[in-house]
Amino acid sequence: MPTWNEGSVGLAEGDVSTWLPVDPFIEITLLAAKDRNVFLDRYYKQYHQSGWLIVPKKHENFQWLNDYIDSHYQKDQSFSNSKWTITKYNPK
After folding, report:
1. For residue range 35-69, what is the model confidence (pLDDT) as tens digits?
2. Residue 43: in which H helix or E strand, if any?
């Protein structure tokens, strides 16, 4: 499903697809750890695609998500500035 981006005249359909089903992030954090992994595994098996992860330099550490990404994806390239880090991941 395409994402929606806020345009100058309201919302407009974008051409960016979701890489991981963690948007909005708060919703997946409400699931029990076992259920989160089952959910992510199902998505991974169905879509098996590359994607970018954008993370603020100052953020909570969600180790469970880092562990999942590290076990299923390989880092491709990464860029950062003083506030953000963006990393591209490819499926293993």
Report:
1. 999 999 998 998 888 988 888 888 777 889 999 99
2. helix 33-47
CA distances from 77 to 20, 34, 61, 80 (A): 17, 30, 21, 11
Name the nearest CA neighbour of 47 among 72, 25, 26, 28: 72
Instruction: Please give the C-alpha separations between residue 68 and each of 6, 16, 45, 58, 65, in angstroms, as whole numbers.
Output: 30, 22, 13, 20, 5
Q: How many residues does the structure list for the chain?
A: 92
Within a domain: 2: no
Tell me if 64 is assigned to some domain: yes
Q: Kindly tell me if the per-residue pLDDT of 14 is higher than 80.
A: no
- Evaluate whether residue 13 is within a structural domain: no
Torsion of CA 75, 53, 67, 23, to 10 degrees: -150
pLDDT tens-digit readout, 66-77? 999 999 999 999
